[in-house]
Design brief:
Elements lengths: L1 H5 L2 E10 L3 E2 L11 E2 L6 E6 L2 E3 L4 E2 L13 E2 L3 E15 L2 E10 L31 E9 L1
Antiparallel strand pairs: 1-8, 2-7, 3-6, 4-5, 8-9, 9-10
């Protein structure tokens, strides 16, 4: 009896770690980029979802296109840990029952989307979305034959 309870367990996990996606800061018409203010860090000193970009690091372009490069800013990193545990109950030689518990985003880490990239807008540098959902748990029962 104890062997049925202690044997047949499997644990699985998937860890996803990704650097922040690059993006381009632009003016409202999307074809013109701002100029960079020399010596000012474009990363906000108290960086967070409400303040991802230091707006003081940019200014309206002096020329036709601005001197800021394409894809020079980075969004937030992505961190997700998914986990599952499976218990197998053998019925006979070629049949078994599996009980599964799967937990997506086990650590319930918020993964934020890209900030508003339009220089001069009221929400410039503000992140208003997430790219993953919060923790989700599901249970399953599977019969293999």
């Amino acid at each position: 009896m104890a062997g049925h309870l202690l044997n047949g367990w499997n644990m699985n996990s998937i860890l996803t770690l990704q650097a922040g996606r690059p993006f381009t800061i632009h003016l409202p018409n999307r074809t013109v980029r701002p100029d960079v203010v020399a010596g000012v860090d474009p990363v906000a000193s108290n960086q967070g979802p409400d303040n991802w970009i230091n707006a003081a690091a940019f200014t309206a372009p002096a020329g036709a296109f601005g001197n800021l490069g394409r894809n020079t800013a980075r969004g937030p990193a992505l961190r997700v840990l998914d986990f599952s545990i499976v218990k197998k109950f053998p019925i006979n030689e070629d049949r078994e029952l599996q009980f599964r518990t799967e937990i997506f985003n086990l650590t319930n880490t918020p993964n934020f989307g890209l900030p508003d990239q339009e220089f001069g807008s009221g929400n410039f540098g503000v992140i208003s979305s997430t790219v993953t959902s919060g923790r989700q748990i599901q249970f399953g029962l599977r019969y293999e034959f």
